[in-house]
Amino acid sequence: MAAVAVVGGVPLLAACGGSGSGAGSKEGTTTGKALKKVVPSYVPLNLVQPDVPGVNGSSPGFTKLPDPLVVSVKSVPGKGSAFRVMTPLWGTVPKKNNPYYTAVNKAVGATLNFDPQDGNTYQDKIGAVLAGSDIPDVMTIPGWNMQGQIRNAITAKFADLSPYLAGDAVKKYPNLANIPTGAWQYSVFGGKLRGLPMPTPVIGNAIFYRKDLTGSGAVPASADDLLAFGKEYTAPKKKVWAFDDLWTCIQKIYGLLPDAPHYWQLENGKLVHKIETQAYREALAFARKLHDGGYVHPDAEANKDADAKIRFTSGHVVMYNDGTGGWKGMVTEQASANPKFDMQALDFFHHDGGEPVLWQDDPAGIFTFLSKNLSKEKIEEFLAIADYAAAPFGTEEFMLTNYGVKGTHYTIKDGTPTYTPQGVEEAQPSTFLFVASPPTSIAYPDQPQLAKDYAGWMARQAPHIKKPLFFGMQVVEPQRYASLYTPFDDLQKDIRRGRKKVADVEDAVNTWKKSGGDKLRDWYQDILDKNGSGN
C-alpha cells in the first residue's frame, strides 16, 4: 500500500520547503517501507460483542446498550493542561462551561476550550485561521474543506504524530490502535502522519425502497428487474413513480469507479478513465431507459434533489438512492407520522444479475490536527485524551462523550438512552467527538430492528467491495485540470434525460483527451510508477 500527498501538481513537502525522512522520494510521497514507518499498527479491540458482527470491514450492529458498560481507559489521561480546540458544528453552539463540558474535562483531566464554528461556513474560517499566526492547539478539518492552499498549511503548521503513534508506539493508546489501518493511511499528509481520523463505513450509499408499499414480493436483482419494477410501480395518474434519480447507484450496478482520484483503472498496464469504458456507456444507456419509460419522478428529472427525501417518505417515489447516514433519521422521523413506514436497502447486484463489483469509499472523511508549536509533553497528553475520545460503543467513555451525564443529559429506559432537553442543547451537538473517533458502528438501541437491517445489509455488501487503484492516497489534481471532468456532469444528465445520445460521449471523450485528459493520465501514471497503488 502507498500514500501520496500532492497539491496543485506540487508535492507538499517540496511546496513547503521540507524533505523529511518519511518521504519515499524527493516529491514528498510515502511508499512501501517508508509508509510502514509512519502508520500505526492495527490492534482491534473486542470489548463488547455486537449483535450483528462485522464482515470484511463492515460496521458491526448493536441493538442494545451493554449493562454494565465496559471501561476502556483505566486512568485519567490528562495532566491538567488547557487546549484550545477548533471544530465545525452543524447546529446551535452550546454555552461555554456548561455541565457537559465540565464533566468531560473532569473525566479527561484537562481543560478543552472548544471554539466551535458554523460547519456551513467552515471553509472560509479555516482559510483565515491558517493564513494567520494564531493557530489553535487542536483543529478539525473535514476532507471536503481541504481546498486551495489548505493542504500546504496542514504540512507546514501541524505536528508530525509519527514519533508518537507509528508502528507499535500506538499500543500505548489502545482505542487509537483500534482504528483501521486505512483510516490512518489516509491521515498521511506530506509524508508524515499528521491527522487523527474519523473513520467512515466501507460503503456509504444505497438504493432504498419502501417495503411497506412493495410487500413481500421479490426485489430487483438485475437491470432488467429494475425496468420491470419501474413499469409495475409507476402510476402517474396516482402521482406515484417507481424511481427518483438513481444515477449514483446505477453506476455501482455497472461496476463504475467513483470520481477523482478514483476514476482510473488499469487495463493491460494502461490507466483508463471511467468515461472511456464501455461500462460507462452501458450505465448511461440503462439510465436513459428509465427516463424513456417514464419511471423517474418529474421533479427528480428537473434536478430538484433537495426534495428527494420528501418524495420518498410521502410515497410519491417507491425507490431512491441516498447516503446510508440518513437512514436512521428518516425511520425515526416516520415512526410516529407513519407507523407502517418500512425503509429497506436493496442488495447491490451486477446489471446482468451476477455478483456486484463495489468500490470502497475513502476510509476517513474528517481529520483533527495538533499544532506543531505544542511541546512533546502536551502532544502526548492530548493523544491520551484522544484515546479517551476514540472509545468504542459500549464503554463508559463513549457514553459520556456522546451522551453526557446520566440523569442530566440523558436517561435510560428499557436499555435505550434518550437525550433530555438539556442534553439536546449541550451534549447532542457534540464537539468532543471530532477529537478522535472509533471505527464506525451501527448502534441503535432505540431502533433495534434498524440496527439489524442496516448492519446486515452492509455485511452482505462487504464481500463484494474492492479498493480502487489510489485507495487511501491523498491526491489532489493540479489546478490546470480542475475543470476537465466538469462537462461530463452536464452531459450525463442530458443523455439520461433524453436531450442527447449515448454516442455523444465519444466526442466528449476525444475533447477531454485533447484538452488535458491524456496529460492528466500521464500525471497519475507518474504517481503510480513512483508510489505504487493503494489497493
TrEMBL record:
It holds the Pfam family SBP_bac_8. It is found in: Cell envelope. Belongs to the bacterial solute-binding protein 1 family. The keyword Signal applies. It comes from the Bacteria. Coiled coil: none annotated. This is Extracellular solute-binding protein. The keyword Repeat does not apply. InterPro entries: Bact_solute-bd_prot1, SBP. Signal peptide: none annotated. Keywords: Signal, Transport.
